[in-house]
Queue: 3 jobs
Job 1
Amino acid sequence: MIIVLLLCSIILFCLVIYFYKKSNDNMKLKEKKEQALNSNIDSEKNQNKDLSARYNELSQKYEDVCRENKNLKESYRLSSVSNKNMGEIKASKELQEIFEQLQEEVDIDHFVKFDNLFLYDLKEPRQIDHMIICDYGIYIFETKYWEGDIYYNISKESLKGTKHELLNRYIFYKQDENEHQTFVLKLNENGEIEYCNHGNPYKQIYKTMKKLSAFLDKQYFINSIIYFNYHNDKYHFIDGSDKSNGIIGVNQKENLYDLLKNRMKNFKFKKLNEQQIKYLMQKFEKYKV
């Protein structure tokens, strides 16, 4: 009997020792898990702090960019208002009149006109004097209010065999056969011939057309027209560009009207619907200066 009691005591003692050790092991495991959990929580907190700081930094940068764009746009607007030339004001009125007349003659259901757009958020910002969106597509206009005889997109080759060939001796004596220029000749107050070269608007509007086409994901055909609208019958307009060239230079309101009417009557693409025109109108609304 004593032996049995002794054995029971030993077994009980062993069980106590086992459960005590098990309890200690569980406590240590619990502490490790809590430490690991706390470590993970601290790590997450630090990551959250880093993400929060990064978010605040990016938000600040975004606000700075928005502010810069706004300031740039406002600066351009103020500069444009103060420097807006007579030609652009005149062209805006003439384009409105032309398209109102075309509405009746070539069945235009909708058109919207923008003056002085500034696409400030492109990689290379572009300014557009006038844009008209209608059933027959997108039309952009570069206006030049230049007084004198206009020689548009002239090359040395284009003057050969014409009554203006003599100009090659003075204008193109250093240039390549195929280099093009746009320039103005007029008499000054002393009766002397004055040569003025303000750059070639053909290159200007061509670059704008390409940037605009990419901006619209090449989904729309863009008609590009350079409008010389200093009206005086004593001056001549000489066009040296290839007749197959899509970028047209034109002078006088009636010539611009005839050009647009002819393009619309020979239009071979699918016309824009009201929804597309409204979409484009909303897209360009924010670029108004």
Job 2
Amino acid sequence: MGADSTALVIGATGNVGPNVVRQLIGEGVTTRALLLPDDPRAGRLPAEGVEIFHGDLADPDSLLPALEGVDAVLLMWPFFTLDVETAPAVLAHIERHARRVVFVSSIGVHIGYEHADNNCHAYLEQLIEKTGLAWTFLQTTGFTANARLSYAAQIKATGVVRSPYGAAARSSIHEEDVAAVAVRALTGGDLAGRRLVITGPEVLTQVEQVRIIGELIGRELSWQDVPAEAALNAMVGAGWPPAYASGALDYFSQLTEEPELVTTTVEEVIGRPPRTFREWAAEFADDFR
């Protein structure tokens, strides 16, 4: 797949999508991005080099203009804001137009924590497998960028992060490294039919992540554990689907006893090790000041 090929990024303005778009452009691939008509994060995309199409996964037919002439599709499903009712129709359209799909999934599928009847990542993997598409699943741990969402407001306001399960130990992955693996899968056929477990290079507890941020911004930060029930109510109030919020908290509870695994997949695929959490935090330190 080269300059005469076309890739479509669905989920183009999240944490991973803009990095995929930039890297595809850098590879000389004709790059398209699917955005909601009123997407407030459209400014995350490069000003040049990407064709913008508007559509909504809730309306599968709205994807058709973006899919015309496409060879490969990166798919990230917005589980927080959209159920999977339209997923079969979306995949049917993708199958009719593209040859290859790369789906950003979750490590929860790999470890057996997520099941298809949850109507989440495992369900989408199952649907994709039934198509005639050449598929690759990126079963990722949490993104390092989640630290911004989880910690930044509290760090700036008080210097104290109040959240459950500070001892939960994660192998968070830099979103640019997820993107690099995705681009490799989108542009080459040798990763077809593979479930790639994508992790960062190290395991850190949430408390350790906050300590690293504090060192980089020159402030003494602290962590205060709060009851999971209070966190669940806050998450649901912020728009998390209740089952998704409950599952996330249960998983973090599990990680206090059994840390997330670390793989060498990123280095095997792209030829260099993934970035550390400290590298990510140094890059975005101003977001915590």
Job 3
Amino acid sequence: MSLGDTIVAQSTPYGYGGIAVVRISGADSIKILKTISKQIKNPKSWVARKTKIYHKKDVLDETVVVCYNKPKSFTGENMVEISCHGNPFIVDGIINECIDLGARPAGPGEFTRRAFENGKIDLIQAESIANTIAASSKAGLFNAISGLGGEMSKAIKDTSKDIAELLSYCEHLLDVSDEDIQKDNKTHVSKKTSEINNSLLKLIENYDTCRVLTYGAIVVLAGKTNSGKSTLFNALVGKNRSIVNEAAGTTRDYVDANISISGVPIRLVDTAGVRRSKNMVEVEGID
């Protein structure tokens, strides 16, 4: 990837649909739009315009376009978003026109990378964009949007500032001050250290919670034979997925199902009971 050039890519999922969005970012993005539309001469920033997109003299599609002048755009560069009909032939045609005029295909995550490198977002917000897309539950989505809004970044910056101030205070006591270290000084350092430690523990806890809410958890039911694992599995899943029988060793291979508990996505796995067995099929299932 190289900053300074102009990139183009489809921002919506590939395939057929009502609407698709093609995004262009870079110094030549608005110039390229003027060339392929032929109708827009002086586009206004943040104003939607209806226009036709051309391939030579032929109309590719009738679209709605929005221009964003730097730095007031997602990437911090001049940007154009073209909303066209969701036909892959139309989308490919628009992208190819942009490439013919000097743009290049964007790499994976390159729009987000440019936003980061131009100071529009930080690394946590960049990760939150991916989490917003990948969230597998409402709770995970809300957490990702919170991170995108900068709440996690602010908490980390505040904690970092507290650490820097405490270090500065300690260095002053040790290297600058002519007075002996007093009990009050030690109490202050101890109190601030405890507060910082609690803040860090809370950040770690929030990270673990966000990770589970976004990507889900894997819960494995393991234990001795005939301990009720398969019965519990079926009860949680809400239907008979695992065979339940009084005979020990009924479950010989793992059975899994995706469920949600209190908004948390969970992959539940029922496993073979652990015991010594002469049945080679059951032994392989346990292993």
